[in-house]
Each structure stands twice: as C-alpha cells, then as structure tokens.
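Changelog-linked ticket: nickel (II) ion example.
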Amino acid sequence: MAALSSEPNILPIAQIGDPVLRQRAREVTREELLGDTTQRFIDDLIATMRDANGAGLAAIQVSEPVRIVAIEVGDNPRYPYKPKIPLTVLVNPVLTPLTEETFDVFEGCLSVPNLRGEVTRTVGVRVQAWDRHGNDIDLEVWGLSAGTYQHECDHLDGKLFVDRVKDPATLCTWETFDRFHKEAFIKRAEALVAKHGG
Ligand code: NI
C-alpha cells in the first residue's frame, strides 16, 4: 500500500502570458477541501511558496484554478520591509474594504519574473474565508499586510499586479528597484507600518 503521507512537491509556477493566470478560479466545496487530494495540494502550495521565497502564492499560480491562497511572511529576502504574517491558508476568500484610504506600494510577483511596479491598495480589508480545515476565518488586516492579501486574492480573479500599475514609469527590475527606489520606498513603508501596525 502506498504511504499516505509523503514529502510535499515543489510545483512549477505559471508565468505571465500563461492563460491559466487569467481565469477566474472556482470556489472549493467543503467536501473537496477536506479530501486527501486537496489537503496534499495545500501542502504542496505552501512548500512551493516557501521554496520560491514568496510572501504568498495562489493555487492558480501553480495551474490549479481553485480559490485557495497561502500567505506567509517571515524573514523574507525578497521583501525585508514587510511585517511578519504567520502562515495563513485562505479558501474561498472574500475581501471587503474597511476604509477608502489607500496607499501606493511597489509589488512583485512570482508569476512576473524580475519586475516590480507601483500599485494602489486599500489600507484596510476585512478577510472572510475558510482555513484549510473549513473553519471560518474573519479578520481585519491593515497596512502593507492588507496589500499582500489583496495581491493574492486578485490572482483568484485572473488579475496580476501589472494590471493595476497606474504609471508604467514606476516599472523596474529588482536590481533597479534596489538601486533607485528602495531607500525612498522603505521610508514610506516604515511610516505605513508605524501608522497601521501591519
Ligand atoms: Ni502574485
């Protein structure tokens, strides 16, 4: 008999231009969520996010168009200024803005290699979802972390951060971000975190 538990797999991450990224991902049923196949898939999603140093990863980015995302921010070399977020798996998430206040933030994405650009995000969102076991999640997220949640949930509707870049002149590579934009951006990011604690 095959062992039920095995090491998680690192899955290939779909890149911009792959039509899978432009679909609307479908809702997951509770029965499907609790089944072995989905539970193993969630383990693979988390392992793939960690392997790529992502702050989050949506199922659709590994070519599974279902409404599941993983988010986790520890000591992240891609985003050293991001406040920490413990591992969070959201299933069928719904985000509701808590304010009209917005902030501008440089984003990047594992599906958009070597590109960053400035997008506008709502400064606070209510997040309603299931966790990976089907328990209700209902939380408020503020500041930079709210941006991370919005970025990941955008993926479920086939949206990439590049769609939200208002000024293409803000587009940069990771190298030119570090050289020309990082210092000013980190000051802004720190002010945002100080104000909103996230
Ligand atoms: Ni992304």
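Closing comment: Example verified and attached. The beta strands are 56-58, 68-73, 85-97, 102-109, 112-122, 124-130, 136-142. Residues 109-111, 151, 155 surround nickel (II) ion (CB under 6 Å).
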